[in-house]
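User: Assemble these into one structure.

Assistant: Restating your components, then the assembled model:
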Amino acid sequence: MGELVDIQLKRGVLELCVLALLAQNDNYAYEIAARLGDAIDMGEGTIYPLMRRMQTEGLVETYLVESPAGPSRKYYRLTEPGRQALATQRDAWTTFAAAVDLILGARK
Amino acid sequence: MTRQEFMAQLGQGLKGAPPQTAAEILADYESHFAEAGAAGRSEDEVAAALGEPARLARELRAQIGLKRWDERRTPSAAVGAVLAIVGLGALDIMILAPLVLAFAATLASLMLTAFLLLLVGAFILTVGPSTQPPGGPVTAILIGLGLMGGSVAFGAVTTLLSQGLINVTVWYGRLHLRLLKPAIHPRELRGAEELRA
């Protein structure tokens, strides 16, 4: 069941990754999708449902920026609740990852 | 798959969603293709990297359905939310259908009972006093009022139960949506599907 675990793991941390990327700088969806797609091999299409949900939950907001290459781009930026969510999820991830590392290390 | 095929399938899958929302979603994917094209990627490659449009549409529609249920606790929103989750494949309908039907039947019969109690109460209240009942007309009026009040309370509890049931379904669907069924590469998807089978 390696692949299924793989998918679920990525799915769970995708939101955290997007929050972390947006904390560095505002970005547009294509760039986010391309960067995450390269880094953790996610289907790029998944980013759009995720961005919509995060927008509904008030974690991100959008604004339009003129693009040199065609129509204007929709940029996403973190809101204050988004920053808080990032802090919470980062802590949860760090704790979880440390615990798993410890157990994996102990079994060797 | 070409850009046109991808967009057509996505649009097909989004039928039934509010037109403005569907237009926004389609615009998002259109600009994805435009950006990718500017970066020198082929339509075929981009469509493959995006994942299966039908599956993406199901996920988006489930999201829209859940959002509507959050905003408006109406029967039609409830039906929409449950259907969206079922469409997602998150609820195994073959296993759950008998259970859900039994639940729905129980709730419906409870509602019917409440309604009948209300009728009986109204009957006793209006007709009772004129038939010289034991204990006098006042007793008949009180019994009638009591039955009617009880049936209203009963109906309210049943309504709460139904709403709770739908909330649990929605909660489960949302959990599932987040963790289990991503619209990932078709290649990975097949692997996951085989594992489930």
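The beta strands of chain A are 27-28, 60-67, 70-78.
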